[in-house]
Amino acid sequence: MNSIFDERRYLIPFRATLLPQIFTDVLIIGEGVAGLRAALAVGEDREVIITSKAELGLSNTSWAQGGIAAVLSEQDTIESHVEDTLTAGAGLCDEPAVRQVIEAGPERIRELIDWGMRFDRAKPGDKSSALALGREGGHSLPRIVHADGDATGRELAITLDRKVRERSNVRVFQNCFVIDLVTLDGSTPRCVGAITHHPKYGLQVIWAQATILATGGAGHVYRETTNPAVATGDGLAMAYRAGAKLQDMAFMQFHPTTLYIAGASRSLITEAVRGEGAFLIDRNGYRFMPDYHPLADLAPRDVVTQSILAQMAKTNFTHVFLDARALGTKGFAERFPGIFALLKKFEIDPGTKPIPIHPSAHYMVGGVITDDCARTNVHGLYAAGEVTATGLHGANRLASNSLLEGLVFGEIAGRVCKEMFENGPGGGRPARVIADIRLSDRSELDLDDVLSSLRSVMWRHVGIERDGERLAEVEEMFDFWARYTLDKIFDDRAGWEAQNLLLVGALMTRAAKWRRESRGTHLRTDCPRPVEAFHVHDIWQRGQGEPQTAPVKATPVQPKPAK
Questions:
Q1: β-strand 465-466 against 523-524: which pairing, if any?
Q2: Per the domain annotation, does 274 fall within a domain?
Q3: What range does the domain containing 453 cover?
């Protein structure tokens, strides 16, 4: 990778003596499920600041439709949920992390119920009846709790936000863009806060004893995505610049079913629709998924996505269809009211007409490495949610495990980060932030053109299907864009996001080129099968040329007690 990706530290030259300075105990970057749950776990005896680059309701959490996976019925078991997760992860799940998250699931759900979250019930409107449990692809049993049919994320965000705003020790800075983390050099880098920008207050330094990254994913590195516009990989980029280790960056999950209508955004059609009996058909009305996998339409997402592409190629067509006619108009509207309202705008009645669909980028599987206590390798920096690589998802996320992970590791991050208070500020806060970056002497590229080209080339060549030669070409494109974009000083969110997307896209391309195999979400047409040599995690860190590798963690077999 071009050296500019590894050497650049701050995005702008900060005149620190002119910047307002804010002091807090804990800085949480991101207002999705992981960030909000972390704020609640910190407790009420410490000051907390949450920054959100947009308004509540624009995070991936708020857009989540399907639900939260947890073992809540007598017919289900922890072992079953663990096995389903390991199977979906295609050999790269770290089993201790899988067990840690899944075992904590029931408690996190009961907690949400105690806080007033309205989950759907088996008998609608009867709070005393059992929770309604749905089933999604890759799950062997129904274990998905949901709210308002297909609005689980919105209800979850509202519940957590309401609870956070009851805390007098928590301040929420909305429309506050975090440009970069501030670190102190030493044998071990230490994070001491961040540089932020607010449209009203301008640049600010927020000093913090503990910082928690909960910035979500990077779907907008692709032309076709289900993600909201805020998903530009900011946390991944700033963590990399700060020296944090990133893992498995080749793995982006593509959701198989997003609405495919010319001129319309790629709106998600939740997997739960197939869990209720809908199935995929091609342009000829043929139900094709039984040809590709024993679980047919409820196979893991990577299988369904790749099968759709194969069937599109067979039929020489741009998309396939989701046939939900068996649910009927009334049944679909009651179970999935949000999707029904969306389809109505396009004059599609899912009770009488199949829904045109096509895969889109959906969830960033790789991310910042954390241990089982949400710590990164940068002292004082913690992380939770989609921005992380905890080992839970492996090479392919199991449906509805993401909100669960955000709840579990958000709670852990908020609770554990209090260790940073025990020994005081640990060396004090620096009086000034200095970044010695000379002004660029290169000509400028049009940012809109760069982003349009970046997203298109990522979709074509670093998307669902990949090839080594094309990946090498894309890597060269990133080097060119970097020379004329990463060396520029920007004063607005659009420029900073563009630089972050360039860095994250380059890392994803580099990781995809390195991983010469097909596994989980990662499909290499020139290497169509898994390769044992790549049955490892690949780890990327600023200043290192080639990745380090780490073995996949398994839970040790416990010896049987002597009789």
A1: parallel
A2: yes
A3: 446-530
Cβ neighbours around 175 below 10 Å, total? 14
Number of C-alpha atoms within 13 angstroms, CB side, residue 493?
18
**DSSP H or E stretch at residue 51:** strand 48-52
Beta pairing, strands 21-29 & 48-52? parallel
Whether residue 375 lies in the annotated active site: no
Residue 555 lies in a domain: no
Whether residue 282 is found in the same domain as residue 378? no
Are the beta carbons of 337 and 225 closer than 8 angstroms?
Answer: no
Rounded distance, CA 263 to CA 427, Å?
55
Ordered per-residue pLDDT tens for the chain, 563 residues: 444 455 444 444 444 445 778 999 999 999 999 999 999 999 899 999 999 998 766 677 877 777 999 999 999 999 999 999 999 999 999 999 999 999 999 999 999 999 999 999 988 877 778 899 998 888 999 999 999 887 888 999 999 999 999 999 999 999 999 999 999 876 778 999 999 999 888 889 999 999 999 999 999 999 999 888 899 999 999 999 999 999 999 999 999 999 998 777 778 898 889 989 999 999 999 999 999 999 999 988 889 999 999 999 999 999 999 999 999 999 999 999 989 999 999 999 999 999 999 999 999 999 999 999 999 999 999 999 999 999 999 999 998 999 999 999 999 999 999 999 876 554 445 555 555 555 556 667 788 899 999 999 999 999 999 999 999 999 999 998 888 887 777 778 888 999 999 999 999 999 999 999 999 999 999 999 999 999 999 999 998 888 999 999 997 655 555 44
Catalytic one of 99, 301, 455, 493? 301
Among 360, 392, 407, residue at a domain's last position: 360
Contact in structure between 277 and 269 (CB atoms under 8 Å): no
The verdict on 241 and 282 lying in the same domain is no
pTM of the model: 0.91
